[in-house]
Amino acid sequence: MSKLAGKRIVLGVCGSIAAFKAAQLCSTLVQAGAEVDVVLTEAAQRFVTPLTFQSLTRRPVYTDLYDVLPDYSSAHVELGSRADVLVVCPATATTLARLAQGLADDMLACVALASPAPLVLAPAMNVNMWQHPATQENVARLRQRGALFVGPVVGRLAEGIVAMGRLAPLEDVLAAVRVALGRAQKSVLAGRRLVVTAGGTQEPIDPVRFIGNRSSGKMGYAIAEAARDRGAQVTLISGPVALPRPWGLEVITVATAREMEAAVLDACAEADALIMAAAVADYRPERAAEHKLKKTGAPLALTLVQNPDVLATVHARYGDRLIKIGFAAESRDVLAEAARKLAAKGLHLICANDVTEPGSGFGTNTNRVTILDRGGGHEDLPVLPKEEVAEHILDRLERLLG
Fold first, then answer.
1. What is the model's pLDDT at position 72?
2. Which domain holds residue 126?
3. pLDDT digits over 172-189, tens only?
4. Among 136, 159, 365, 386, which residue's Cβ finds the most Cβ atoms within 10 Å?
């Protein structure tokens, strides 16, 4: 969310029952440090008031085409020209039509016409209105011009039915805002194809039991989202996790180490880099029982066989054409073991962390890693939120990609 600090965001709110959710979006943007100017359509004011957004932003709210800024400059021109991103949430069928046709008959439409900033649209409307050919033609035209659409999604609508047309989750709208801002920054990662793995794997013992580990997937998900925000095309290959599916990524779910290996090898065929943050099980039961094992009163012995080393297999197939970054989660001899893996697996970088250290183990929101490279160098990071660790890793990746 720190990426939003200091950014100028114009939030357009249209006449939909979902307009009340725009207040929460506005509040979140302001708390993240963004400078938010709100434009309400005439219809929006039937659902929410200017005072609501004025209280949240401590800034004027614009409703009339002839509003002026405090310096008496034309609001619709100045707001549009200085914005870093224009978000319309919720976007109604009427506003989509206005924007697609380039009309200038209300304040929000004029701001959009006067703005070179990226446009994020979060539609919300009746399912038949959304599916109508006229609306879909307008959506297609706006997409062609580069607008980012978030939703709508299937859910309960105001008329009491469950169908397509519900406003997307606000977390997804915020993700789209970050993506729009990232595209404008022209990062080295923009347009690059990245494969990121996350979470642990589960090796079945029987239909109800498995061998697994404590990986939450938080580190891999943080890397994938941060890379997406820099404009990369990200494929996230995830083991079983209890995390929401990130917006704007291709997500492939797997369960076992062998499924992870197959998915990674396939995804890396056209990738520029692989960041292997998943905790892949080293061993699996030789055979999984067909039915649930029952208690017998006797000890249960399992024969374990070694799983494939995914990174070593990837290096054997793709070599140094593919930038490869791994993780070494260790409990002793951390740096020595990380250096061994760096060489053995043909990695460009490896991120070593001691899982026994407070704030650095599985399931935490923070991590403390040391980044080792092929040249023998290492970078010690303090305990940081995993989102910040992700940014450091991507900074190093950008240097490798040049």
1. 52
2. 2-183
3. 999 999 999 887 777 889
4. 386
| DSSP per-residue string spanning 237-293 | EE-S-SSPPPTTSEEEE--SHHHHHHHHHHHGGG-SEEEE--B--SEEESS--SS--
Q: Which position has the token pair 């290492």?
A: 378
Q: Give catalytic residue positions.
A: 213
| pLDDT at residue 5, as a whole number | 87
Closest CA relative to residue 109, chosen from 122, 98, 100: 98
What's the pTM? Answer: 0.86
Sign, Cα dihedral of 168, 171, 175, 180 = positive
C-alpha 27/C-alpha 53 separation (Å) is 8
Parts of the chain with a pLDDT under 70: 1, 68-73
**295/104 Cα distance (integer angstroms):** 74
Strands (E), 301-402: 304-306, 323-330, 349-354, 366-367, 370-373, 378-380, 384-385
Contact of 353 with 329, CB cutoff 8 Å: yes
Cβ contact 251:238 at 8 Å: yes
- Domain identity same for 259 and 350: yes
C-alpha separations of 218 from 8, 199, 264, 300, 334 in Å? 29, 7, 19, 33, 21
CATH, residue 154:
3.40.50.1950
In terms of domains, do 125 and 212 share one?
no
The CA distance from 92 to 123, in Å, is: 6
Q: What is the pLDDT of residues 139-150, one digit of tens each?
A: 999 999 999 999
The answer on 205 and 132 residing in a single domain is no
Do 252 and 114 sit in the same domain of this protein?
Answer: no
Distance CA 2, CA 226 (A): 12
For residue 132, which amino acid is it? H
